[in-house]
Amino acid sequence: MGGALRATCATGGSAMRTAVFAVVAVGTSLVAVGPLPARGAPDQPALDQSAAVPDAAVPPADGTFRTGPAVAPPCSGVPIRTTDNAAKVVDDAPTGTTFCFTAGWHRITETIHPKADQVLAGNTGAVLTGSVRLTRWTANNGDWVTTGVLPPAYPQTGQCEDNTANICYLGEQLFLDSKHLTRVATRDKVAPGAFYADYAANAVYLGSNPAGHSIEMSKTQTAIESSATGVTVRGLTIEHFATPPQGGAVVLGLGWKVIANDIRWNHGVGAMLVNADGAVLEKNHIHSNGQLGIGQYSTLKATIASNEVSYNNTDGFWIADWESGGIKTTWSSGGQVSGNLIQYNRGIGLWSDAYDDSRTFSSNQILRNAADGIRYEIGRNGVISDNVVSGNGFGTGRGSGTSLWDGGGINVNTSSNVQVRDNVVANNVNGIAIQSRTRGSGPWGTNLLRDIVVSGNQVTMRGGTTATGMVQNAGAVIPAGEVTLNDNVYILDSLTAERFQKTGQWYTAKQWRGTGQDTASAFTLGKAVLDATGILTILPPTS
């Protein structure tokens, strides 16, 4: 449930005095269970602390969050049958026409370019696929081979997790009975469940016997894209498009509404907003795409809301620091990313990068992504509020790590005027990481870390080198007063553990307060347990 919950620790009479307390959820409220031993407790006035449960309910992660075609309204309009050339039917119709794709597989051999105010909608079971069936297989030295199905070789774009093989950019994916197969770099690596594409020889080698199975290969790059305004796309399953890195299977434009679709198993990005001012991307299930779930570029006041974005980066793009994972927005202003369930992506959960301005990330549940839960990088005027961020940053690939330089639940990197408030940040590789890096200059002048306020958050840090705090390059020293942490609640494994860091120096809770940070925050012993609805239960410490 939403709504801020409050907890205090009274010590008798009308006065309140110093107490560091553990709290435990009882019903729907947090109740103090008494002061902990005074050893190591910072000597500060007692606090009436918000437990930082988001003011708005976040989407649940228990399977009850409804997205995709099941929540789309029925379709009434011009039918497009599985035997039709969908691109031609749409092109021949006037602006404002509503189309209903009938149930079944629609093989999209050329991109659909809708006109202004057209509606592309689906009846139950309508699937747009960019793949072709591969049927002519020959046994060959323990593998099976087909020829003449690949495009000419093309140069690499993007960055791969495996930067030796460098095969993540190749868009022609194979599916055996709709199951995604693993691409390998050389023929000798072919095994059951894997394939090798030899572009020079125009041959595909398969390690599984194709007899009695359906083998599909992604071919068409983009499903839907046009410069028309006011287009609506809803109720469709869109899959198996050979989208290039940073390209979308669906590319939204000005004023588009893309609602209640299942966008899956496309090679690059599931849905991409490009110059899509005022667009709405809502209630979609965007999952299992090769690089990224959702991308946004050069867009004003778009809304990305109430989507499930999960299990993206299936094709091996660089996890730690390239455009892989859940959602990434760049060069955009205003608008919001809110109420989304962003989970199990092999990369960053939610990433603002490169000159985003006045962006709001709120009321999202962001779980178990391989890199940062939220990263706000080289931007300004951002608000990160009322999110539940848990279990992120434990990827072990190239460039991953456990220091504050490697990020955390929430990472603010070389940005200005950013508020991080009222979030639950639990059990991530680090809590909240504030990074000041030497990042050159851009349209706003030199890129600097300035005016960062972190308040009202509930942050759990237990074990290992888990920390919250600030790091800086020698050429990007943080001036005094530019980063403020206060009015937070920290759930710790020990009051004497060094869980806070400031530019290379580690601190216990009491020492951290001595630096001038979190002087009105609470430091609590306990264990945090997060349920599927985003409610954090803080259990008292066990002996």
From TrEMBL:
Q: Which residues lie within the region annotated Disordered?
A: 41-70
Q: Which domain of life is it from?
A: Bacteria
Residues forming the Right handed beta helix domain are 255-406
Q: Kindly list any coiled-coil regions of this protein.
A: none
Task: Give start-end positions of Low complexity composition bias.
Answer: 51-62
Q: What is this protein called?
A: Right-handed parallel beta-helix repeat-containing protein
Q: Which organism is it from?
A: Kribbella sindirgiensis
- List the top taxonomic levels of the source: Bacteria, Bacillati, Actinomycetota, Actinomycetes, Propionibacteriales
